[in-house]
Write a structure and sequence with these properties.
The protein is of the alpha+beta class. The chain has helices at 6-32, 36-39, 44-54, 119-132; strands spanning 57-60, 73-79, 89-94, 96-99, 102-105, 107-112. It has a three-stranded antiparallel beta sheet. β4 and β5 (102-105) form a beta hairpin.
Length: 133
């Protein structure tokens, strides 16, 4: 995972284990953050992020229009787009995390397949006609 040291590998393992907890806290904050009871727990995601930072990790974000970098991003969905060229971020879904320049969790996004061309649809009837002969 990390090329730097056993200590870095151990830290990366711990952070990777706790990233789903941070995700859950963020989801709960979004859902119940305005609730009277939920307000008392709004600081938890920030505290956890600070601990991650203190351990030497950094959160990174991606934005709509960025080029898809497969070493730092997972395209969890790809769709055709007239607006965005191939391998461009259409919608960021989740931020990524890195430790000492090594990705421990890639960012997630919806990526563009580029415009949907009419050529494959035009070729299909010809192929059917050739098969019929």
């Amino acid at each position: 995972m990390l090329a730097s040291s056993n200590k870095s590998g151990a830290i990366a393992g711990v952070l990777t284990s706790f990233l789903p907890v941070l995700d859950s806290l963020n989801d709960l904050q979004a859902k119940y953050g305005d609730d009277e009871f939920g307000k008392s727990y709004n600081a938890l995601p920030g505290i956890m992020r600070q601990v991650f930072t203190d351990l030497g990790s950094a959160e990174y974000t991606i934005a709509t229009g960025d080029a898809v970098d497969r070493s730092r991003m997972d395209a969890v969905e790809s769709v055709y787009s007239e607006e965005y060229p191939t391998d461009t971020v259409i919608q960021p879904l989740a931020s990524g995390w890195e430790l000492q320049g090594n990705v421990i969790r890639p960012a997630q996004c919806v990526a563009s397949l580029g415009p949907e061309t009419a050529a494959p649809a035009d070729e299909a009837p010809e192929e059917v006609a050739e098969e019929a002969e």
